[in-house]
Design a protein that fits this description.
Layout lengths: L12 E3 L2 E3 L6 E5 L7 H14 L3 E5 L3 H13 L4 E5 L3 H9 L4 E4 L7 H14 L2 E7 L5 H7 L4 H19 L4 E6 L3 H12 L7 E2 L7 H17 L5 E2 L7 H14 L8 E4 L10 H13 L6 E5 L5 H7 L2 E5 L3 E6 L2 E7 H18 L4
Parallel strand pairs: 3-4, 3-10, 4-5, 5-6, 6-7, 7-8, 9-10, 11-12, 12-13
Antiparallel strand pairs: 1-2, 13-14, 14-15
Bound molecules: iron/sulfur cluster.
The site of iron/sulfur cluster has 12 residues, from loops.
């Protein structure tokens, strides 16, 4: 049913109480897009992300105000918080001391290496996980000078240099690495090459991927390509817009690779001229409901008798539409035929009954 995937052996590291790499599940993370200083908006977004299945959340720390707010974010967040830092190492030290479980640093944006070394030592003292986040758009000048363009080889050299630096100079191993470009194939090549040379866990994803449709496609291409080859220990689907969508897309990718399932899977037909019920609106309602449910079940929402009964039978609970009516299947058997206006309510009743009968799902 799903491809057989052998995960690349990696070290296990810890972001607070969440393990990444080794035999840990592939972790789903996201990033808030609120101002970190707006505590109520940030915590409310973190709560929505958690409900969607996010396991680690990153917040931006652009200035002193943000780092001062971080302590409260960390205290109230139900999942580990990572501070995202660029340019100023002093903010990084304060973020680590404020209790963040991890920091993401982009070495290309830190000019003063002595300060960066001090920050990394503070991370070691606090066992704060460090992500070396290489980004094609902000590579160090000396690497760019050598490679002329921010190619995948340039990203890999930068990442390897920094891993070696942290391991050898700081003697610190609570590390993960990302090598992101806005070009999905360049991103893939960077991860493939890096993974041959290092066993630190990899945070995979495509950066600056765009909105829901183009961003989902770019991320899915790169992340799936890598996961199919066993590469990737945690992922972020970067999308412009509501970050909870990033989490739903991440779980869709993981489910379709047979790696993790969190929310119900919905099989639905595209509808066509044969359809005689309002299937699109039915589907939307089922999808909205399914996003709030954490259960590994399969639902089918089908328009007519052509493929409807077949798919509905194979689902845990399914609908096959007819003329102003719907037939509801549960575990392969017809349980009801109901008029369209009560179809959704009756469908949900059957789903609830199925979930009660199968609490393990
Ligand atoms: Fe059309 Fe029926 Fe197929 Fe849906 S199941 S696309 S309504 S033929």
């Amino acid at each position: 049913m799903y491809p057989k995937i052998k995960r690349r052996p990696t070290r296990k590291v810890w972001v607070g109480n969440v393990s990444v790499g080794g035999d840990s599940p592939i972790r789903v993370q996201s990033m808030t897009n609120t101002s970190t200083t707006d505590l109520s908006a940030t915590l409310s977004q973190i709560q929505k992300l958690v409900e969607a299945g996010c396991e680690i959340v990153r917040v931006a720390i652009p200035d002193e105000k943000a780092v001062n707010a971080l302590k409260d974010v960390v205290k109230e967040s139900p999942i580990p918080v990572i501070a995202d830092l660029h340019f100023a190492t002093s903010l990084g030290e304060k973020a680590v001391k404020a209790g963040c479980a991890g920091i993401r640093i982009n070495p290309g944006t830190f000019k003063n290496k002595a300060n960066l070394e001090r920050l990394l030592k503070v991370c070691k003292d606090y066992n704060c996980c460090v992500r070396i986040g290489i980004n094609a758009g902000s590579l160090e000048p000396e690497i760019l000078k050598k490679y002329k363009t921010p190619s995948y080889r340039a990203m890999v050299e930068s990442a390897l240099r920094w891993v070696e630096y942290v391991v050898e100079k700081i003697d610190y191993y609570n590390l993960k690495v990302s090598l992101k470009s806005s070009n999905w194939w360049e991103t893939v090549k960077a991860y493939l090459a890096f993974s041959k040379k290092s066993d630190f866990p990899l945070h995979v994803g495509v950066t600056e991927a765009g909105g829901l449709i183009p961003g989902t496609i770019k991320n899915t291409m790169a992340i799936s390509y890598l996961l199919l080859r066993g590469i990737g220990d945690t992922l972020r689907v970067s999308l412009t817009g509501d970050p909870t969508e990033e989490v739903y897309v991440a779980y869709e990718i993981l489910r379709n690779l047979g790696l993790r399932a969190l929310h119900p899977e919905i099989i639905a037909c595209p509808t066509c001229g044969r359809c005689e019920i309002d299937l699109s609106s039915l589907y939307q309602k089922v999808e909205t409901w399914a996003k709030k449910v954490k259960a590994d079940i399969k639902l089918a929402v089908m328009g007519c008798v052509v493929n409807g009964p077949g798919e509905a039978k194979m689902a845990d609970v399914g609908i096959a539409g007819g003329k102003g009516v719907g037939v509801i299947f549960r575990e392969g058997k017809i349980v009801k035929k109901v008029p369209e206006k009560t179809l959704l309510d009756e469908f949900f009743k059957e789903v609830e009954a199925f979930l009660q009968a199968h609490p393990e799902r």
